[in-house]
Design brief:
By secondary structure, this protein is mostly helical. About 80% of the residues lie in helices and about 0% in strands. The chain is built from 15 helices and no strands. Helix 3 crosses helix 15, helix 7 packs across helix 9 and helix 11 packs antiparallel against helix 12. The longest helix has about 35 residues. The radius of gyration is 30 Å and the shape is globular.
């Protein structure tokens, strides 16, 4: 007699009866419940996040544009088209157009060296790149005054040769370059480290020289990270206030950037003019956010492909 066949009905009864009596249900949904918060928690967290963004981001933007347009479009365009306002826009663009490429020229080789090579002084170089993040912009401006000011280390020599740095455009460009110094390098270093050096080694093995390896292998791999760093660097360059305020001298129409011009107009109780110029900075910030989102999307698409 087959004992297994004889015992099978009792085994089935032992399995079915408890499940019927105690309504045992499968635990297929248990992992899903364990990884999902209750709906009210999700709605609460989403509401808090949206409220925070609305209060600290959307509301100030609405206030800026509302105050700028309070007296109509005529007053707005008059304030924006003022000679001193246009001079501040021009100086802001000049500072950005010089400082951003300078940081690209430094940031790419610095990131290349840090990510691809090991050498003595590497930690020191990383520390120096991060220095503008740790130093107050006002302190950095004072450092330039100490070096290039009339009573500074190089002041007498500069006066003797009629070279103006402090309270002139060169000082503003230097201060802007310093505060935007880390953005390109800091964006590229982790990207290059994650990519490794295998493709560069393969290119060199196939006979490519250093420049060919950089232009045809490294640069295509880092192009989206580089664009992202350039966008952030440009945004900081156009909005810098502290360091530029120290070295500019606040000469209206000559050494005032857009943030400094906004401060002067506001202190003169010219609120429409101040908010009109501030709205230009806000528009630049929104354009920067749009470009940043586009770069992130293209980078994600390229990575997925």
């Amino acid at each position: 007699m087959d004992l297994t066949a004889a015992a099978r009905p009792f085994f089935n009864m032992a399995v079915v009866v408890p499940s019927v009596l105690f309504k045992v249900r499968p635990l297929a949904g248990a992992p899903l419940r364990a990884t999902q918060d209750p709906r009210w928690v999700r709605w609460l967290l989403t509401g808090i996040a949206l409220g925070f963004l609305g209060f600290f981001l959307v509301l100030p933007l609405v206030a800026v544009f509302g105050e700028a347009l309070r007296r109509g479009l005529g007053a707005y365009f008059t304030a924006v088209g003022d000679a001193d306002a246009l001079a501040s826009v021009k100086l802001t663009l000049i500072a950005a157009l010089i400082s951003v490429p300078a940081n690209v020229v430094f940031g790419v080789p610095a990131a290349w060296c840090i990510a691809k090579y090991s050498f003595r002084g590497k930690s020191l170089l990383i520390t120096l790149i991060d220095l503008p993040f740790a130093v107050s912009p006002v302190i950095s401006g004072l450092i330039y005054v100490l070096v290039f000011g009339a009573q500074g280390w190089l002041g007498p020599w500069l006066i003797e040769h009629d070279v103006k740095i402090i309270f002139a455009v060169p000082g503003i460009v230097l201060a802007t370059t310093f505060v935007t110094f880390p953005f390109v390098a800091r964006e590229l270093i982790p990207l290059m480290q994650a990519q490794g050096s295998e493709e560069e080694y393969a290119a060199i093995t196939l006979g490519a020289n250093g420049w060919q390896t950089f232009w045809r292998v490294t640069l295509p791999n880092i192009k989206w990270g580089l664009l992202y760093g350039v966008i952030l660097c440009n945004a900081r360059a156009m909005g810098e206030f502290g360091a530029v305020s120290v070295v500019s001298g606040h000469i209206r129409g000559e050494t005032n950037t857009m943030p400094l011009h906004v401060e002067i107009l506001y202190n003169e109780y010219n609120f429409v003019g101040a908010f009109a110029v501030a709205s230009l900075l806000a528009l630049l910030a929104l354009v920067t956010l749009v470009l940043k989102s586009i770069v992130e999307w293209r980078h994600a698409q390229a990575h997925a492909a």
